[in-house]
Specification:
By secondary structure, this protein is of the alpha+beta class. It folds into two domains: 109 residues, no CATH class; 114 residues, 2-Layer Sandwich (Nucleotidyltransferase, domain 5), CATH 3.30.420.10. The chain has eleven helices and four strands; from the N terminus they run ααααααααβββαβαα. Helix 2 crosses helix 3. It is found in: Nucleus.
């Protein structure tokens, strides 16, 4: 007979992680979900912890844990030193005493007990150390700018509109057994359906023109946009001496454009 979820024996590592989560204001149901126990288990443990002046539960009788507190700390240390390692890779990295060889599932549970769940990473453009320093220097140089200075900046960029749906991650709620049910299948077309590239700008005075880029965006097309779209709008909407903002794309930095 399976052991009831509420009767799980919390390890010292799990107890410390639960206390830390409680101190951070996390709800009982959130902690229960993280540690795969019932809310009553979380409630009983925290009640015991408060009653006993913050001391951990005494060790209970049962099957001994296959990992020691030292191994648990090593598992967490390896994961934190390289967050991209999988539980399988971490299990191979750890040096175990003879007779101790925890499974990948055990390693995964130890990581989860310390709040190190596997999550989809957020993607962002790579920024070199040189560019990071340049960005910080720019921010400090403009730290004391007032509204008057910022109102004379014309911000610009290129982007695209997808002609069929989105090229981002799509989420849908469905039952486990309905993966291929047409109701839950988002429609797709070959080659993504295409896109519409655009150039646009804005300032403190409002939105500027949104220009459809015809063909491939190179330095010649960009120069034409500056001369026939950006400058007429800027001269009409901004004061002389306005600042035009653009990124360091190679076509923006070409000699033809800078001339």
């Amino acid at each position: 007979m399976a052991r009831p979820r509420g009767a799980k024996n919390l390890t010292k590592l799990e107890q410390r992680a639960i206390v830390e989560g409680h101190r951070q204001g996390r709800k009982h149901h959130e902690l229960a979900s993280q540690f795969h126990v019932s809310r009553q288990t979380i409630s009983n443990f925290l009640k015991h912890w408060k009653t006993n002046g913050g001391r951990e539960h005494k060790k209970r009788v049962g099957r001994p844990r296959i990992t020691t507190s030292v191994i648990d700390r090593n598992i967490v240390r390896v994961s934190r030193s390289n967050p991209r390692l999988t539980a399988t890779e971490i299990a191979r990295e750890i040096a175990y005493p003879e007779g101790q060889n925890p499974s990948v599932r055990t390693v995964r549970r130890r990581l989860q007990a310390f709040g190190l769940e596997a999550r989809r990473p957020v993607k962002k453009p790579f920024i070199s150390i040189k560019n990071r320093k340049a960005r910080v220097a720019w921010a400090r140089a403009h730290l004391h700018w007032q509204r008057k200075e910022w109102s004379e900046v014309l911000w610009s960029d290129e982007s695209k509109y997808m002609l069929f749906g989105s090229d981002g991650i799509k989420w849908i709620r469905r039952p486990d057994s309905k993966r291929y049910d047409p109701k839950y299948l988002p429609p797709t077309v070959k080659h993504g359906g295409g896109s519409c590239p655009v150039w646009g700008c804005f300032s403190a005075r409002g939105m500027g023109p949104l220009h459809h880029i015809q063909g491939t965006m190179d330095r010649h097309v960009y120069k034409d946009i500056l001369e026939n779209v950006m400058l007429p709008y800027a001269r009409q909407s901004l004061q002389p001496g306005f600042i035009y903002q653009e990124d360091n794309d190679s076509k923006h930095r070409s000699k033809d454009v800078q001339a």
